[in-house]
Design goal:
CATH architecture: 2-Layer Sandwich
CATH topology: Alpha-Beta Plaits
Number of strands: 4
Order of helices and strands: HEHEEHEHH
Largest sheet: 4 strands, antiparallel
Strand order of the largest sheet: 2-3-1-4
Distance between the termini: 26 Å
CATH class: Alpha Beta
Radius of gyration: 16 Å
Helix content: 40-55%
Length: 167
């Protein structure tokens, strides 16, 4: 099912509110938020669910024994999950960037880790390069802003990655 821009923006606002609430209620814990990278107007489909399940499994394994809260939502605007861990934000960001960079579907995981003040950490804070485009050697943000590739090209690449993963 296609979503509208208004629905997408409303979901981002709700996610921000949930993140703020979790951080306020658990000030000694580190918040990790998961969303699935899925370009286009359809955010929930069979591929996004495979990616989400792979991400959840990987996060649970990487943060085993440190999680105090796990919350997941399968929404038409996209899958999202929240994790609270006892690991400090810097180490949590190292773990999540390693996961994004090494898991076969990690390039399709968006794992945000937050500073205690609620601002998201950047990859460069833990010595990681910006994310690379799914289709070329440019930084992903450059291609996204310049609209270098069509949604169809990106979705074809995502399908390839998921098909290889489930093989």
């Amino acid at each position: 099912m296609e979503i509208t821009l208004d629905q997408l923006l409303a979901s981002r606002e709700r996610r921000q509110q949930r993140q703020n609430s979790l951080m306020s209620d658990h000030p000694t814990q580190t918040l990790v938020c998961l969303t699935v990278i899925m370009p286009g107007a359809v955010k929930r489909n069979s591929h996004s669910l495979i990616i989400a399940n792979a991400a959840i499994t990987a996060v649970l394994e990487c943060f085993k024994g440190t999680l105090s809260h796990i919350e997941a939502h399968d929404l038409t605007t996209g899958y999202e999950a929240y994790f609270l861990t006892s690991i400090n934000p810097m180490e949590a960001k190292r773990i999540t960037t390693e996961l994004e960079d090494t898991h076969p579907l990690g390039r399709l995981f968006d794992l945000d880790v937050f500073h205690p003040d609620g601002t998201p950490m950047n990859r460069n804070e833990v010595g990681r390069q910006p994310r690379q485009c799914l289709l070329c050697d440019n930084e992903a943000r450059y291609c996204m802003r310049a609209r270098e590739h069509t949604t169809a090209q990106l979705l074809d690449r995502i399908r390839e990655m998921v098909d290889q993963y489930v093989g």
